[in-house]
Design brief:
By secondary structure, the chain is α/β, with parallel strands linked by helices. It has helices spanning about 5-20, 90-95, 95-105, 165-175, 195-205, 215-225, 250-274, and strands at about 25-30, 40-50, 65-70, 75-80, 110-120, 130-135, 180-190, 210, 230-240. Strands 5-8-7-6-9 form a 5-stranded mixed β-barrel. Helix 1 (about 5-20) packs across helix 3 and helix 4 (about 165-175) crosses helix 7 (about 250-274).
Amino acid sequence: MDYTMEQYRASARAVQERLGGFVPKTAMILGSGLGFLGDEVESAIPIDYQDIPHFKVSTAPGHRGRLVFGHLEGQSVAVMQGRMHHYEGYSYEAVVYALRVLRLLGCDTLIVTNAAGCVRTEWNAGDLMLITDQIKMFSESPLRGENLPEFGVRFPDASHLYTPRLQALARQAAAEQGVSLREGVYFYCYGPQYETPAEIRAVRLLGGDAVGMSTAPEVVAAAHCGMEVLGLTLLSNMAAGILDQPLSEQEVLDAAAAAKGKFSSLVRACLRRL
Ligand code: HPA
């Protein structure tokens, strides 16, 4: 086990001292190129990861590495601008550490976003997808090691990692905004190399609709500690082998920039309905 309950509490206390009584309710983890919503938080209190004890920094492109507390669409939010990934060399426990601290601070809901490859040939790059479930069966669990009962039980149920109520809310929000929203299963691959065409064919056979290198560990930890979860994916590129062209990080960031408007209006409409 990498972290003790004392360390989680020490991080939470250090953040609390900066918040002056503000209690966040909704944690938001914003993926590659999607962190701009953090800049739109009102009465913002930004705190750099490097200033919080035991926090790791995020080194991935398009990830800023700070928490922003404040209000968005009337909700009290804690926005993670940049997340930690396993491929950066962090254990899964380190990847979910910040989220667990946000739980201790009062967050009971998680909105998680990411950019991912589109596995379905009949969908298009640039589409948005509501995550209905996930597959993360070929890598360790963030819950591996001694269980911390303050967070949850040893063998948590995973039948509804993505809260059905919040899925319904996102469908309504999308309809209200006139944003078309795909629905599907997020398949976690730990990267950092993009998948091979053969791996994507395997993902498709196994039931994945989108493929990405994040999100699934945090969602396991969020559900473990009793949070409700909403997951939204920007399908930033067609997955490997679908088009005859190499995948690149630039393509992902460009797609995120292009989707900014519809992505922001969907997330904001979801927040208003929480
Ligand atoms: N594969 C894995 N992760 C990703 C992709 C992809 O195609 N696009 C964005 N993140």
